[in-house]
Amino acid sequence: MHGSPVPSQSRDWIDVTNPATGETLTRVPCTTEPELQRAVEAAKTAFHSWRETPVPTRARLMLRYQELLKQHQEELAEILCEENGKTFEDAKGDIWRGIEVVEQAANIAALMMGETVENVAAAIDCYSYTQPLGVCAGITPFNFPAMIPLWMFPMAIACGNTFVLKPSEQDPVTAYKLAELFTEAGAPKGLLQVVHGGGQQVDFLLKHPDIKAVSFVGSVPVGQHIYRTATDHLKRVQSFAGAKNHMVIMPDANKQIVINNLIGASAGAAGQRCMAISVAVLVGEAQQWITEIRDAMAKAKPGHWKDPNADFGPLISSAARKRVLDYIAKGKAEGARCLLDGSDVKVDGYPGGNWVGPTLFADVTPEMSIYTDEIFGPVLCLVNADSLDDAIRLVNDCPYGNGTAIFTASGAAARKYQHEILVGQVGINVPIPVPLPFFSFTGWRASFYGDQHAYGKQAVRFYTETKTVTARWFDSDIEQAEHPNMTIQLK
């Protein structure tokens, strides 16, 4: 707060645990209501001067910030690994994708340009300005503790707003370091506020009259609550929710490339990605590849982030592990064929970790809970389809629309798929098609509640308002401008 840490007076604290060991790393306060109020007030005060700061000055702040993030990337990655459990390379990738958004925020001057039309009527011109909203808020999840905050506050602040960030209480230290580096980059006091806690603190932000816009990434039930509550309080909202992402595998695709990509996209990050592939749709003769998929997936190894041979880390918490194990049990009970069961996996030296091994189900049908629900673990479901049309119908019947992919050698099949599929982000021979920051992250349907998406041009529209000016000047005023001291004789 005000550019430096402020000790909380809260009586409620949450343990932050290492998911690979179960050990407590630190404790995070549930920010009290008076502290939340002061954070919002500080951001509101900072907004009055920041909105007048020239756009190139804002861009230079982002240039300094991205350079500091690059310099501290490995330090940030180690913090992230300890509290989140990701492998070191995965953690560095998390940070790098955030850095790319900060680099895009440094291009803010071009993104905030208005429009002009001369002579919309006789001697009348019309032009528009892009102006900031005020105080914005972000509520971020545990699974990308660097990237997703960096989706939000750099773009919002570059647009001239100030920001209150509520990171996940499960891995908040990464966000603290991001804020520390932002201050080091030269951010004025009050520009970025970081508060902590759970649902009570979130609801305070959703209802506060001085917060104009809310960004959220998380689960479907929470995403719906965020959207309903914030819009009921007349705020702009972008709420990114759950997913069930399908990879359609055509029989003409390169088998080895498909399998390599499928394993990484389903088990990577322990499946804790909203863009993870959790369903593979095997079309026609591709159904003969099941044994090879199983054998390749069996080689995916969970482990501690310091183990260079680990392919993915633990789940974030014991509760998350239990939830995934419950779904594995449901899949068996519902009649799916469990070809690979990671329920009892052990990692040497880390008996207290939240480990789940790679798990593979075949003969999965759309009625099963392992198909309908987002499991958020290293669990892959194999579904059969007779044709590309059948595969498209299957994906479109799923309520989610975050991401999907098709692997094929046929340009015609790829074009048909990308055109007919009701999903916002499509990969063609790319398993996890997250767009680079000069585009926007464009989930559809039950994966997103709102109108404007994260980063790119849509983020600028979300974090700004357009002011349109219609101006008329009179030729008769020119003579007065040339001779301002001339006395006008009135008859």
UniProtKB/TrEMBL annotation:
Task: Describe the location of the Aldehyde dehydrogenase domain by residue ranges.
Answer: 7-469
Question: Is RNA-binding one of the keywords?
Answer: no
Biased composition annotated in UniProt, kind: Polar residues = 1-11
Q: Which UniProt keywords apply?
A: NAD, Oxidoreductase
Q: List the residue ranges of the region (Disordered).
A: 1-20
Task: Give EC number(s), comma-separated.
Answer: 1.2.1.27
Q: What class of enzyme is it?
A: oxidoreductase
- Record GO terms (molecular function): methylmalonate-semialdehyde dehydrogenase (acylating, NAD) activity
Record Pfam families? Aldedh
Q: Name one GO biological process term.
A: L-valine catabolic process
Entry similarity comment? Belongs to the aldehyde dehydrogenase family.
Under which name does UniProt file this protein?
A: methylmalonate-semialdehyde dehydrogenase (CoA acylating)
According to its UniProt entry, this protein's organism is Microbulbifer thermotolerans
